[in-house]
What we know:
Elements (H helix, E strand, L loop, with lengths): L27 H10 L4 E5 L2 E4 H17 L7 E5 L4 H12 L3 E4 L6 H11 L3 E5 H10 L7 E5 L7 H6 L5 H10 L10 H7 L15 E7 L7 E6 H15 L7 E4 L6 H13 L3 E4 L5 H10 L4 E4 L1 H14 L8 E4 L6 H11 L2 E7 L6 E4 L13 E2 L4 E6 L2 E5 L2 E7 L6 E2 L3 H7 E2 L3 E10 L5 E6 L4 E3 L2 E3 L1 H9 L4 E10 L5 E9 L7 H8 L11 E4 L13 H11 L2
Helix pairs in contact: 1-2, 2-3, 2-8, 4-5, 9-10, 11-12, 12-13
Protein name: AMP-binding protein
InterPro entries: AMP-bd_C (IPR025110), AMP-bd_C_sf (IPR045851), AMP-binding_CS (IPR020845), AMP-dep_synth/lig_dom (IPR000873), ANL_N_sf (IPR042099), ATP-dep_AMP-bd_enzyme (IPR050237)
Pfam family, one: AMP-binding
Amino acid sequence: MSEHRSPWHASYGPGVPTTVEVPDEAVGASLERAAARWPDRVAVDFLGAATTYRSLADQVGRAAQVLLELGVEPGDRVAIALPNCTAHVVAFHAVLRVGAVVVEHNPTYTARELAHQLADSGSVVAIVWEHTAAAVLAVQSETAVRSVVAVDLSADLPRRSRLALRLPVPAARRTRAALRAPVPDGTPEWHRLVARSAPIAPDHPRPSSGDLALIQYTGGTTGTPKGAMLTHANLVANAVQGQAWTGAEPGTGTIYGVLPFFHAFGLTLCLTYASRIGATLVAFPKFDPDQVLAAQRRRPGTFLPAVPPMLDRLAAAAEATHADLTSFRYAISGAMPLPRATAERWERLSDGYVVEGYGLTETSPVALGSPLSPARRPGALGLPFPSTDIRIVDPADVAHDVTEGELLIRGPQVFAGYWNRPEETAEQLLPGGWLRTGDIVRMDDDGMVVLVDRIKEMIVTGGYKVYPSQVEEQLRAMPGVQDVAVIGVPAGDLGEHVVAAVTLDEGASTDLSAVRAWLEPRVARYALPRDLVVLSELPRSLIGKVLRRAVREEYLTTHA
């Protein structure tokens, strides 16, 4: 790709190129290189159990042969429903090695949620946590799944930890119950299958860069759950872009895997990016600040992909215990705005940068980022990644560029479309490879892109447009308010009324008149809430983003 410069390139961090060369290879090539170059380097640390790159490559080869013996063929879909663990890393790479397609699922989903996704993808094999096995088996007849393989999470623990689980004490029983669950007799067990298998033949055909690698289910830009199709080239491109952005020195980094691997954010930064730079991945089955700090003492981290609430909780735990976070050179925050106070606190404790990244599942997922330099700016989405182009257009006329409008993205990380949904693909992927994001943004003079709001969540009241995030930003600064979600609800001829749902600091109280008084000098009069709801907590996504849609549904249900 030829060099070209746009307004934002001048604000790039030191040494970051404007374009990257994306190699013509599959995702697994980087793991094979890492195993050859750093065979004794720790690839995965799971609660103290270290797996070297040599061992990881061997396990992936054996697991790939297991899949072949289960009848998996190139192009087949294989479901993975696992917490973060070594087995998840092995299964992910093994599926790709045989030319099949990974379909990631939340292991805590209900049977009905899993049934929809399994049936829609047409997965033929499901590799699932023991806690998830019963739900999958209950709906198996409604899907194309031929084989369900159960994963004993405790099998990935260090030997001493496995032995401790057998102790006849309450703590051991609780831990054992959290990790394990009974499965029906005859259900094959993943670790046993892998241990007994021979490795896949070295000359077994590998997938090509253009082949489909991943189906990632997402609410997407329209709110309808559907499978985003990501090719090997998409995933490789985003890992290469991430390496260029961070300037990572191969074979030296330690990435903390606190984000779920089944989410696009965690998958790219903890699975594909990690193997490309030969990093050590410290994997956690769930986010637990005490567990993270224990790992920090054992194997200090250098890079933390996270969401703001994780940064806040980890910083608070570190301050309370005087833990040392200074090994972290940088953190990348996503999924929601990064408050300035959170950024300043993290940088004070870690002495490293924390920057925001922006993306969608449809962009593999990172498309923009704040520079890892003094030019970073909390609250801004950042600058387009290398080899990534953007436009800001009128949502009603995408041929017309504007200063504040819908963000369009084009680059090698942009997905191939939605699985079995050609009409929705055509709506989102425009001629020329431009992806409609559904986000309203503006670009400042330095090239920084700033989020205004989601098109679908814009409120129209009395003919005026209200962007919820702008009201939320002001209300979040009100003393006593912990967090807030602003929604629109039907209001007859007026269109919609603005409603604020808040959570409060301990001991705080407020009412509608106080909220309106606080906001009156800060937002337009038509943006003032007509109703206030105080909640104990706000509904959130898997990675902590406030779900305005769920708040709205709950409000309409209780105020019908």
